[in-house]
Amino acid sequence: MEVELCPILRSFGSEQNVLSRPDGSASFVQGDTSVLAGVYGPAEVKVSKEIYDRATLEVVIQPKVGLPSVRERAREQCIRETCEAALLSTLHPRSSLTLILQVVHDDGSLLACYLNAACMALIDAGLPMSSLFCGITCAINTEGQIITDPSVQQEKESRALLTFAIDSVERKVMMSSTKGSFSVKELQQCIAVSQKASEEIFQFYRDSVKRRYSKIM
Amino acid sequence: MPTDTKRLRGPEESQSPMLFLPPDAQILKASSRDGSRGHADVRPIFARCGLVSQAKGSAYLEAGNTKIICSVYGPRETERKDETDMKSGRLLCDFRLAPFSCLKRGAWIQGNEERDLSVALIESLQPGVCLHRYPRSQIEINVVVLENDGSILAHAVTCASIALADAGIEMYDVVLGCTLRQDGDTCLVDPTFAEESGNWLGGYGENQGRVTVALLPNFNQVSGLHADGEMREDTLTEAVRTCMDGCHKLYPVVQHALLRAVKRKAPPSVK
Amino acid sequence: MASVQVSEAEKVYIMHGVRDDLRVDGRGCEDYRHMVIETDVVSNTDGSAKVSLGHSDILVGVKAEIGKPRALVPDEGYLEFFVDCSANATPEFEGRGGEELGIDLSNTLYKVFNNKHSIDLRSLCICPGEHCWVLYVDVLLLQCDGNLFDAISIAIKAALFNTRIPKVHISEDAEGGKEIELSDDPYDCVRLNVENVPCIVTLCKVGQRHVVDATLQEKACSVASLLLAVTHKGMVTCVRKMGGGSLDPESISEMTETGKRVGKALHAPLMDLLKKEEGLGKNRQKVGFLR
Amino acid sequence: MKDTPLSNCERQFLLKAVEEKKRVDGRQTYDYRNIKITFGTEYGCCIVDLGKTRILAQVSCELVPPKDSRPTEGILFFNLELSPMASPAFELGRQSELLVKLNRQLERCLRNSKCIDTESLCVISGEKVWQIRVDVHVLNHDGNLMDAASIAAIAALSHFRRPEVAIQGRDITVFTPEERDPIPLSIYHMPICVSFAFFQQGTYLLVDPCEREERVMDGLLVIAMNKHREICSIQSSGGIMLLKEQVLRCSKIASVKVSEITELINKALDNDKRARKEGGKFGFAESMPKERITALKKDEAPVEMTDVQDTANEIISRTEAQPDIVKVPSPVVPAPGTGQVGEGLLNTWGLEEEEDEEEEQHEKEEMSTGEVMVLSDSEEDDVVILNPDANKPKRLEGGSKKGVEAPKKQKTSH
Amino acid sequence: MAAGFKTAEPLEYHRSFLKENCRPDGRELGEFRATTLNIGSINTADGSALVKIGNTTVICGIKAELAAPTVDAPESGYIVPNVDLPPLCSSRFRPGPPGEKAQAASQFVADVIESSDVIQKKDLCIEKGKLCWVLYCDIMCLDYDGNLLDACIIALLAALKNAQLPEVTINKETDLAEVDFQKKNRLKINRHPTASSFSVFDDSVIIVDPTAEEEGLSTALMTVVTDEEDRLCMLHKPGGSSLSGEKLQDCINRAVMRNREVSKLIDKVMESVKAKK
Q1: What is the mean pLDDT of residues C216-243?
Q2: CATH superfamily, domain at A12-216
Q3: What is the 3-class SS of chain D, one letter each residue?
Q4: Domains in chain A: boundaries
Q5: pLDDT of the residue at D92
Q6: Which pLDDT belongs to residue D389?
Q7: D89 touches chain A (CB under 8 A)
Q8: Sheet holding A146-148, edge to edge
Q9: Residues in domain Exoribonuclease phosphorolytic (chain D) (predicted)?
Q10: Binning pLDDT at 50, 70 and 90, where does residue E198 land?
Q11: What is the Cα–Cα distance from A58 to A81, expressed in whole angstroms?
């Protein structure tokens, strides 16, 4: 049985260096979903959080309404460990890195948008990384169709939702977070779709960096 | 709007099904103990050391349905540097009732009852521990009550003292605990939860109360004494004596458990 | 808790004194320090009292509010205790420094009143299962000079004696709903029966003997003390061993006996005093906080 | 993290500039920085940029029981957050003095001025009212947070629409935006804060101080006013002494600024309304500057997806080809209610002294119910039984018996 | 000597074992620790289970309470899982509110319940819009030696299977609920998810069921949740080193095997209790 694919990425865009105070900042927009990210560091670290051979990374997610809850805490963990794997934090031992993510609007694929905004902000902050990463969300709807970059409405209608972080070097899965149940085949298809879609986003990263430094080079 | 953002929350309000019982039904039947055990008998207890692999010392104690687990960490450097008395160590206690341990579900956030129990536990254990041997350090005692079927303070004291011994903390003596429930002229040693709350809160009789004693068995010294309710002085004195007898009955079990733990840690050399 | 440092020589001096039934301030082992009690000191409470015992100063206010009875005892009201350790008493209490002591003190008070006779809780019931009076007993420590428990319990008894709860009238409207109406007349009120309210007697073991109403110096010489809450009939409503030391069974029974005797003896003069003060009427000269 | 300290040189430079009526960003004394107001796709969401200061406000609503003292009034709740993004000095979850001050001031400006008709928020008197919650997030701190926050909050409140409700007896139906158009709040007036920074004990004055200027100022005067020139709140801080004339002068300046800003907000609201009506594009995605070198945008596009199916199928078939007919080990049940599966830890039961063996036997025979507690590392089993008067034997400890069958080894292929 | 090596160079110590395809505790790379399950030991809970995976010990107690359903979902009850890591279980946890690890675990358990449909929330409804059950699933770790998530899911599932709720009827006349403790019903378990955790060493070597020490030294952790039909309910990999689709597939296959083992264990234990009664 061949599964129908609906591999469309909504229009997306990003602006770097949007805020004056943080050492690196970026906004990332996917369709109507929009996230603002700010990075501080490397800077002085609290003794209680100090790690002797690498930088301590803290990720904070700020919801738009109310206080962060357990769900945000779990997502912070996912994003932090993804960033940690990409960052060469051993180059800044005993220092602190702080990444703050602010939701501006949620219209689906929020976790993916967090990851993309985080990556752009880390690039803007000029932190050394071993690879870049991007986030892709796939929704499987009741007909078994795979939809990339779903909107809130599409997320609601789906029976499973999978978000992956893909690395830029080997296009492997760095992070995975899923909701709903799905078959092994669907999983592998979603991974393959995400890997393909990641090409677009990595190309976008490259283009935006090229554009940014076009006057210098 | 103080809300617990660090836990998953359910509905704002929920009630225990026990509140919806038809009025004539009773859940807590004050048992008469007929045939099962005498009024002055403690429940059979089961004690064992060293189950928490990560802890310096630990103990698990079961008395009837009351189930208590305790682990001990330390001695380690004290966190409170401003403490005036640095010449001797400090005992710290984190006492928790698991949310499912009581008939009514408890909250995760430590309540007054738990704080009170931890203060009482420290007061009872302190005389038994050679704290002067641990200057500038703290010893952490963590107690979790998995099931509360009465006499938790007394059993927590016993359990914690076994755990302390298992952790190799120097002690003058183990500390044993025993609770008694006074109901008019009868007294029930080591009461279950039903006996503990029983008709005391419902009735208006005289001489109602609960006494918990912590004892250092080898010195025959009382290291902790807590009583509430309403009792005559002579009843109280008698109750303390009965509790002390109850404590002595536990001693062989505790001894046995510790002996085992020691044997396991240092097996007798085969010559 | 507020404490003092005592040198070895001082300790020996105090302990020898206690052995001979002569304490540093001239008291015998079973004597209380000078006590000053005044009731009705805070106007916006339903009952209040201020007690000074030596230099320990305690202010207690009682507020009666209408609440919902507890599910398990629908025909009774209840008491809530809160002890505030103000930084006025000692700089140690600044910030959250007094919190631990405050909780400890209020927990003990709950235990002292955890019985059926201290206060007739049924008299606080307005409408079973729906409305009852809740007495909020707020204790404020103004100055600490040892023996807080005893001073607090006396202040609470005095404040409860002073408490006047407005009378309520329950009327039923047409739909069977109940309406509660508070009496406007300040003299139309209910008094509490405080006869059975216990007083706490703390006995400090110093050397081989034990003393009542220990000063901070004496407290520093003792390793263990026994707290007893005693009613005027000599009933014990709460016992607690405090301090890092242990007690032998004989001294426990001796101390209980002393505690009962001292506690019993405390009630009669206290009640007399309270009645006498009340007899002076509303227009008596108030001392308040100036002394 | 600590804030970057301000050097003495910088401090002196800034003060000198103030004396010479110059400002670091080239503004005049009474000039505001550029104000940009953008609305999101959602109702009640707005971002305000005041120079480099950026603030996000979001209004939300919820049906709640009213306060006992005001049974017919809706509830307004303000929550201003200093996000750690805005400045390295802001720590997460800390109630700093600045945070408390700003929150208080925002409440005074917007709640106490009664600019919103709270009675219109009542659904059923004494039972259900709307609670309007305003979350204000400071995203970038470059001074004058108060003015920016008040603009953001009032703009977001004016933009907000709450769902329509219908009441039938005591049942409340809340309509989705698709069913019935949501309705705006009724706003009487728009109070806006204007801040004045004072230097040299009140000798010099600056409108809309930036972060640098705030650091060297002596005192601050905040006036909240609406376009009808009604003062809604006024507050001076920093302990400076001002003359009556100074305060009056400030209020005059404030009235000019407030009418300008009010106009700006109304214009922004109108633009957004028009865009929505005409079905044009609106929201933050549209407000992203396209001409900037730091920004890039890519239009919606399908992704080329050849051989995705093949890749997936290949992976599955390859791993499935591996024989995994390993038998599932069956668990051992040493006592009712207890079971164990797997191998590994050795169990010393039965290897110890005979006494133990007996004890175990003894228990097993007399086990009264199926409820058994096991809490042990199997190598550490110590059981001690006390049975003082042998009335009723204790039931416990089902001893975790070792799995009997030979260990089955499985492998994840590497 | 070995002890010194282990303390000074823990990573090298582990590597030297992994090179030989085994682990310091004698296990093979794909081997789980002995798993012990005990159910119904807590009488005060409506359902309870204690699970040991090696040294890791987790206890789950279920308390059912009554509440009104939400306006949005008038026909659904609530399931409220919370994982607690008290200072008792390891010195790495401090007293006070739950830390990130406990919160992430709570969210994980909640997500598994949601994704796998273990229990249909509709089954918890007693009267539409009026009354429903709230299942508080409180999970407490008593000994933390790695692989918390697997233990939590087994404990949760077994406790749910063990749970019995009293019958509740709504009295038509008084419109009040009445509870009959004599009649107890079991919950309807829809699906049987089990979790299998993996840990990646040096971005390449995958081991199953990591101990606390192995978790600390590894470069990535992953948990796969499958149900009895071999469908995936969760592929939880919170960052860390990246894995290819093939490697993930290997892990999933192992997880499917593990599901069989655990299901059998739970079934047997359930049977043993029933047989007794």
Answers
A1: 91
A2: GHMP Kinase, N-terminal domain (3.30.230.70)
A3: CCCCCCCHHHHHHHHHHHHCCCCCCCCCCCCCCCEEEEECCCCCEEEEEECCEEEEEEEEEEEECCCCCCCCCCEEEEEEEECCCCCCCCCCCCCCHHHHHHHHHHHHHHCCCCCECCHHHEEECCCEEEEEEEEEEEEECCCCHHHHHHHHHHHHHHHCEECCEEEECCEEEECCCCCCCCEECCECCCCEEEEEEEECCCCEEEECCCHHHHHHCCEEEEEEECCCCCEEEEEEECCCCCCHHHHHHHHHHHHHHHHHHHHHHHHHHHHHHHHHHCCCCCCHHHHCCCCCCCEEEECCEECCCCCHHHHHHHHHHHHHHCCCCCCCCCCEEEECCEEEECCCCCCCCCCCCHHHHHHHHHHHHHCCCCCCCCCCCHHHCCCCECCCCCCCCCCCCCCCCCCCCCCCCCCCCC
A4: 12-216
A5: 84
A6: 37
A7: no
A8: A5-6, A146-148, A133-141, A158-167, A173-179
A9: 32-163, 189-255
A10: very high
A11: 10
Q: What is the pTM of this model?
A: 0.90
Is A41 in a helix, a strand, or coil? strand
For residue D266, which amino acid is it? N
Looking at the domain assignment, is residue E223 inside a domain? no
Give the domain extent around E43.
Answer: 26-191+262-276
- Least CB-CB distance to B46: which of D77, D388, D397? D397
Report CA torsion sign: D233, D239, D240, D244: positive
User: Across-strand partners of E64?
Assistant: E135
Distance between CA atoms of residues B51 and B58, nearest Å: 6
Interface of A with D in 141-200 (CB under 8 A): 148, 184-185, 188-189, 191-193, 196-197, 199-200
Q: Is residue E241 part of a domain?
A: no
The complex's ipTM works out to: 0.88
Quick one: which H or E segment has residue A205?
Answer: helix A184-212
Record: contact A73-B6, CB cut-off 8 A: yes
| pLDDT value, residue D321 | 56
Please check the confidence at residue B243 and state whether its pLDDT lies above 50.
Answer: yes
Find chain B residues with C-beta within 8 A of C104's C-beta. Answer: 116, 119
Q: How many angstroms separate the CA of residue D330 from the nearest CA in chain A? A: 26
Please report the residues numbered 232 through 271 in chain E whose beta carbons come closer than 8 angstroms to any beta carbon of chain A: 232-245, 248-249, 252
Question: How far off is chain A from E241, nearest CA to CA, in Å?
Answer: 6
Q: Do chains C and A touch (3 or more CB pairs under 8 A)?
A: no
Q: Residue A208 and residue D296: Cβ atoms within 8 Å? A: yes
For residue E43, report the phi and psi dihedrals to the nearest 5 degrees. -75, -25
CATH number at residue E168: 3.30.230.70
Q: Which residue type, as a one-letter code, is found at position B45?
A: I
Nearest to B100 among E42, E91, E143 (CB): E42
Q: Domains in chain B, start-ordered, CATH in brackets?
A: 39-260 (3.30.230.70)
Q: How confident is the model at residue B41 (pLDDT cuts 50, 70, 90)?
A: confident
For residue D293, count other CB atoms closer than 10 A to its CB.
15
Domains delineated in chain D: 21-302 (3.30.230.70)
**Given an 8 Å threshold on Cβ–Cβ distance, is A73 in contact with E100?**
yes
Residue E138 lies in a domain: yes
- D219-244: per-residue pLDDT in tens? 999 999 999 999 999 999 888 888 99
E235 falls within a domain: no
Domains of chain C with CATH codes = 18-279 (3.30.230.70)
pLDDT-derived band at B85 (thresholds 50, 70, 90) equals low
For residues A13-17, give the mean pLDDT: 92
